[in-house]
Design a protein that fits this description.
By secondary structure, this protein is an all-alpha fold. It contains 12 helices and no strands. Helix 2 packs antiparallel against helix 3 and helix 2 packs across helix 6. The longest helix is centred in the N-terminal third of the chain and has 26 residues. The mean pLDDT is 88.
Amino acid sequence: MKIFKLVLDFYINSSIHVALSCYALVKMTQHMFHIPYEEPVANFAFFGTVVGYNFVKYDALARSKKNNIRKELKMIILLSIISLVFVAYYFFQLQRITQIIAITFLSVTLLYTLPFFPNRKNARNWAGVKIYIVSLCWVGVTLALPIVNAEIDITADFFLKCIQRFILIFVLILVFEILDLAKDDPHLQTVPQQIGVKKTKILGWILMVVFYFLELFKSNFDQKQLVVNFVLVVLLSLFLLFASHKKSKYYTSFWVEAVPIFWWLMVVFI
């Protein structure tokens, strides 16, 4: 059991789990827009997420403890370096315009992590904006990149899916913010800090209703997708309902982050 926990913790802490969620959302985009088998962009998103998230989480820690880095962190650094090699490999398999967009989101990640201006905090600590930056980045990587790389025409359906994807990521982050409420710096001005837990949950439920009914406005309406989305909405609404700062870290870091994976698997197997 102890070994299982160690493996699970490494799987989560090394950002493999969240990277799989990102990969799943790219595959969902490819499914929704009928993009044929195209692994480079999905793999780029996967390995890029590993590198990006580990950089955000561990950069400062690794630099501050150069001579006293625990074994797990060393393994995470090694995994990140290997992932960076794959990021470079798949980057050069992308279309030129896709590469430019990818670099744009890389710049946002750096802005999110590093303070570019003297005596200023990084974007991660800007009051009230973290949830919007992260949501926009996920929309860009999981929706814009595969669409642009496949040279799909930008239509109303694309913007509709952008709104849906933004809502989905936004609500997922709301669950994280509820659990982190007790330990988050008050200056972060997260949604629960601003409006309270109860109103945050209500906001999340309203947004999920909007997410669901937006599907009806697609030009090529798919009844199967409507059923799959209904299961997703119910599942995420339940996660919101039971979200509390008293929950285990696995509630969000494993179960909530698995929602996009489950969403994709429903499409694959149903």
